Amino acid sequence: MPGTYRHRRWVNTAAFAVTGFCAFLTLGILFFILGYVTVHGIGALNWNFFTQLPKPVGETGGGMANAIVGTFKLIWLAALIGLPVGVLGGIYLAEYGRGTTVGFLVRYAADVINGVPSIVMGIFAYTVVVLPMKHFSALAGGIALGIMLIPIAVRSTEEFLKLVPMAIREAALALGLPRWKVILRVVIPTALRGLLTGVLLDLSRVSGETAPLLFTAFGNRFWSSGWMNPIASLPVMIFTYAVAPYEDWHRQAWAAALVLLMIVLATNVGARVLMRKQVRI
Amino acid sequence: MSATLTAPVPSTPSARPTSASQGKKTSTGWGDWIFENLTLIFALSILAIAAAIAWQLFKNSALARHAFGWSFLTKQIWDPVAEDFGALPFIFGTLVSSALALMIAIPLGVGVAIFLSELAPRRISDACAFLIELLAAIPSVVYGLIGIFVLVPVMRTHVQPFLIKTLGFLPFFRGPAYGVGMLTAAVVLAIMIVPFIVSISREIFLSVPAPLKEAAMALGATHWEVVRLAVLPYSRSGIAGAVFLALGRALGETMAVTMVIGNVPRIAASLLAPGYTMAAVLANEFTEATSDLYVHTLIEIGLVLFVITILANAIGRLILYKMAPDAEAH
After folding, report:
1. For testing the chain B interface, which of A4, A12, A19 should be mutated: the one with the most B CBs within 10 Å?
2. Which of B137, B287, B309 shows the shortest C-beta gap to A264?
3. Which of A69, A75, A212, B56 has minimal CB crowding within 10 Å?
4. Domain assignment of residue A49, yes or no
5. Are residues A10 and A92 in the same domain?
């Protein structure tokens, strides 16, 4: 008897039970993943993991010291390449590019780059760095990750600068400051916490990327001998170890996954806690 | 899309900036001129990079484009030894795995978003949204790891035999239970894109004007009827936009899919059969490609993937932009 009050009440309850279950399921998956990686990772983590190089194929033991350092080196390089472009581009969009054609085009280009699959970004870095140099290098990996940083850095910088009230800019201009000083000394410090949040979220996103590194930074079972040579990274190591047929490698893949997850989630949560503390302007 | 997902910025009515002629070269204005053009150069370099990506993919696939022409998109051969290549199995795999993932993720994601925005108290809703965004932060390769060592065994021993037994009369659920395969990849993909659908849909639901909901309530609608009669119709196009953005992400997803899809370049009707995607073949074969033609072929696959994802993203952004022009299609 559809249409009766009792029936409608029943549908109401059922609908919310179903949607509630959806939420419960999604959160359940999150906690399952975090729990599973933690349990399997902690069992495999030991001091050697952080201090030793990978052992040759077939031998058990060893660690991933080179991959941990490699990951941080790659992120550092990516930040060096991507963040200046992203942040300065974002400053242009927020301060000079509102409502202009150039602004629209740049925003559009940033969206296009944001939508490019990470593996295609790897191909791009391969064609511009690896092909001319004829070998894999940390530099190529850094460029691939650096370009991936740009779109989010641009958009978050623009959004956070736009939150700074016009009145603050006008007050500074009225005191006779030139516009560039207003931006650097008044607008950016006001929005600093937001900018930092955006940058940290951005870094946390690319630090777990694997696909763009497969044929740029490639991987290395030893310490990397410079920016122009292949370098190991945690995500690529996890992939290599997970698809290999050795039991001991699987164990180490879990340990590496736990370490990577810690790095990524700590940055991510840290950034968002920082954001929450921001005084609403 | 990630900007919306990861950095929730309260939107404010953006006041117009002071006029652009501020940057003119007056006696004191050289600093302004330098600073404006410096930032302009960096902004324009973003345009240049986007163009360079497209150009490099196009240029470095020339050998394959000339060798195979348009038939590259419709051939099913993948023979690196004879150097005869066709991309159809990969295009098929990418589209089917993403479509399946959407079929799982849309109901789940929209369900979560309805619960979070319409039923749960604001505090719980915010906490849940925070946690669900963590799901988006988990690296793809970690999803792949869980996929290989947890999901694949479960699919092989429980889910797939059950599907074969109960739905085996359909061509989609036939064949042996390998564990790896199209369906497994779709499940992993679905989990990875749910956070996108949830966060965009939730924002859209929360932006439904209160008078619409109040009108429905005043007519005696139950809570669910308010959702069905007022919230969903108002948000329909927004959800469509969210779906296309999620699709764009699913199409290009590489590591997790590579690790669970089975990597067999064959078109099979059965969803339990192993498949291959464009992103996965790039991940697996790029470093092993020996000849120039082989490399160019793989780059052409990258080009096809690039074009398809750009289309999905463009459609999604267009829909969201039409909904809220102020948001400038974030």
Report:
1. A19
2. B137
3. A69
4. no
5. no
Alpha-carbon distance of B276 to B86, in angstroms, equals: 13
Q: Is the pLDDT of residue B21 over 70?
A: no
Q: pLDDT tens across B239-281, in order?
A: 999 999 999 999 999 999 999 999 999 898 889 999 999 999 9
Domain count for chain A: 2
Long-range contacts of B9-17 (CB under 8 A, 24+ apart): B9/A156, B9/A159, B9/A160, B9/A163, B9/A194, B10/A163, B10/A280, B11/B326, B11/B327, B12/A162, B12/A163, B13/B326, B14/A98, B14/A162, B14/B326, B15/A165, B15/A166, B16/A98, B16/A99, B17/A95, B17/A96, B17/A98, B17/A166, B17/A169
Q: Does B147 touch chain A (CB under 8 A)?
A: no
Q: Is residue B82 part of a domain?
A: yes
Q: How far apart are CA B52 and CA A124, in angstroms?
A: 8
Task: Answer yes or no: is A54 within a domain.
Answer: no
Residues A18 and A119 in one domain: no
> Residue A79's domain spans which residues?
65-276
Instruction: Out of A16, A122, A150, name the one closest to residue B119 (CB).
Output: A16
In sequence order, what DSSP letters do the residues of B113-169 get, joined into one string? HHIIIIIS-HHHHHHHHHHHHHHHHS-HHHHHHHIIIIIHHHIIIIIHHHHHHHHTT
Regarding whether A254 and A134 lie in a shared domain, the answer is yes
Host domain of residue B247: 61-327
| CATH code, B254 | 1.10.3720.10
Q: Is B135 in contact with A152 (Cβ distance < 8 A)?
A: no
Percent of chain A with pLDDT over 70: 98
- pTM, rounded to two decimals: 0.89
A247-276 and A188-207 are packed helices; what angle lies between their axes, rounded to 10 degrees?
160
Tokens of A169: 């800019």
Q: In this structure, are residues A54 and A62 in contact, taking their beta carbons and an 8 Å threshold?
A: yes
Closest CA to A90 of B137, B318, B330: B330
Tell whether ipTM is more than 0.95.
no
In tens, the pLDDT along A97-109 reads 888 899 999 999 9
Looking at beta carbons, which residues of chain A come within 8 Å of B45?
85, 89
Q: Mention every residue, 6+ apart, whose C-beta is less than 8 A from residue B28.
A: A178
Give chain B's domain count: 1
Whether residue A233 is found in the same domain as residue A117: yes
Clarify whether residues A78 and A192 are in a common domain.
yes
Indicate if A71 and A33 belong to the same structural domain: no
Which residues of chain A are within 8 Å of residue B21 when distances are taken between CB atoms? none
Torsion from C-alpha of A259, A265, A269, A272, nearest 10 degrees: 130
pLDDT classification of B324: cutoffs 50, 70, 90: low
Q: Same domain, yes or no, for A201 and A81?
A: yes
Q: Is residue A57 part of a domain?
A: no
Task: Indicate whether A281 belongs to any domain.
Answer: no
